Amino acid sequence: MQNHIGSLYWVISHICNSECDHCYMCCGPRAASFTVDEAAAVIDNLPRRINHSIILSGGEVLHPRNRALLFFISGRLRARYNLPVYIQTNGDFLDASLIRDCLDHGIRHISIASMDAHHASRFGALKEKEAHMRALLKSGGLVEMKPTAGLSPDKVRRMALIKGVLRAAAPRLLEKPSFSIWGANEDLWLGGNWARGRSAESGQALLNAGHNFCGIWSGGLNFLKEGRPVQEIAVQLGYAYPCCPSTRMALGDLREDRLVSVLERAARHRVFRAIDRGKPWLGASEFGISAARARNRFKELGNVCMMCDELLALLDPDEFPASPFPVYPQNKTDAPYFTLPTYLHRSRTCSKTRNIRWKSALLNISDADTIAPSP
Predict the structure, then answer these.
(1) Are 326 and 25 in contact (CB under 8 A)?
(2) How far apart are CA 13 and CA 337, in angstroms?
(3) CATH of the domain at 89
(4) pTM > 0.90: yes or no
(5) DSSP letters of 228-275?
(6) Based on the structure, what is the number of domains in the chain?
(7) Partner residues linked to 5 by β-bridges
(8) Domain span including residue 42
(9) Run of H or E including 130
(10) What is the tens place of the pLDDT at every residue in 202-241?
(11) In sequence order, what are the residues at sequence separation of 6 or more whose Cβ sits closer than 8 angstroms to the Cβ of residue 350?
(12) Is 203 a member of any domain?
């Protein structure tokens, strides 16, 4: 796999001033974040090139407790990749001074992603909030653009082609600061809220067997497409995932692992190749389970992400770490719906035993080399 990706979507902190009922990562004032040193380690493990876009989100990225982290990350990414950095914010902390700070730290697009009924607001109505945000951002010299949330892969390709032409012919146009205003509305968002975190707990998550979250932009579709416009890699703090909703088993911990190596490892597994196609049930055969049975489970649960979680739970945790975030709906039955067949479990155990014996043999050789030779 080449040392580049299409786009990066990085949730840098779960700290937020709100605890919205539709939040898929249980963000709030007491939620998780990480340090500047950890962020630096993640950046060191990103690929040599990002071809299309960089989006930083939260949590609330402009929360006072997140700003130092945000500006460190945006500055480093801007310097390394020479791409405009986008942020998503609820806008609650935004003022003229903060807009200038954002522009000074390499941020070129501000998305007000809270124009919906889920986000609490100091404004009496959404129209009042929208008018205030639009006037504030325009006064800061930003021009309004249509939101890109919910775009089809074909539209993403076309946008990337236009940006590529502009980058070559008129790069200053891409440097023009811009903004967009949108929210988690069914007519714009991804068809409904994800079955994760507070969204699942509050009953806000979409349960509809006719809607495949995985097969659209921000789902797992095309996450292995090696630098193409349709490829987006999602990172929650330091953990990489094939999709924005995240999965019960992470691809890897980028504080320790190179992203390119993590993607190469995932590409060796049928279940991740199926997620790349936007059809995770087709990867069930990796675990000795028919695609038809996995598809039926999708219909039974009414949510493809919940079915995918049950499949990925069968992966070897020594190869793919369990996601550390407690946001995944639990199976309410005593036994898991999917289980690893005995022959696969035995094969995995034998493989681990062989690895242990091989490492032990190397250790014994190493130890022997340290013994002083006989006179």
Answers:
(1) no
(2) 33
(3) 3.20.20
(4) no
(5) -TT-EEEEETTEEESSTT--SB-SEETTTS-HHHHHHHHHTSHHHHHH
(6) 1
(7) 50
(8) 4-261
(9) helix 126-139
(10) 888 888 898 899 998 889 999 999 888 889 999 999 999 9
(11) none
(12) yes
